[in-house]
Task: inverse folding
């Protein structure tokens, strides 16, 4: 008994039907979220004390109904609940955000600390000591 050809088979006889584009595992970006103007977002592991630490630093939990990570099947969010993803090992990561000006201020403070440590290293390395030779240069 002969079956009638499908629309796909009519268009390309002898070829298998087209399948969705394959996304290799190594190229997926699971921890992504849409940007919000004026804010910086990041995922924070929901382990004891970590969320509270970020809240004390000015971050807040994102509770919008948004799609995060790679396309999900049936991943609807209850209104008002935190945006979260499973990151493996039974741990969930919660999407948090901070005002961009606060984030920039925090990054500058971290960079200032690094720059001070680098300057101390340069001073110590450049001070000639008995038995030392050579030089070290730190560049950005």
Result:
């Amino acid at each position: 008994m002969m079956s009638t050809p499908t629309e796909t088979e009519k268009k390309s006889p002898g070829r298998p039907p087209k399948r969705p584009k394959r996304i290799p595992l190594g190229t997926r970006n699971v921890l992504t979220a849409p940007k919000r103007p004026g804010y910086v977002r990041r995922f924070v592991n929901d382990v004891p004390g970590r969320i509270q630490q970020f809240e004390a630093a000015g971050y807040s939990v994102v509770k919008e109904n948004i799609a995060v990570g790679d396309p999900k099947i049936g991943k609807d969010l209850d209104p008002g609940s935190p945006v979260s993803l499973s990151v493996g090992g039974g741990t969930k990561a919660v999407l948090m955000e901070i005002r961009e000006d606060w984030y920039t201020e925090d990054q500058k403070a971290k960079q200032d600390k690094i720059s001070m440590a680098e300057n101390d290293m340069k001073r110590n390395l450049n001070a000639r000591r008995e038995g030392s030779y050579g030089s070290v240069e730190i560049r950005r």
Q: What stands out?
A: The chain has a mean pLDDT of 78. The first strand starts at residue 39 and ends at 45. Residues 37 and 70 are 21 Å apart (CA to CA).
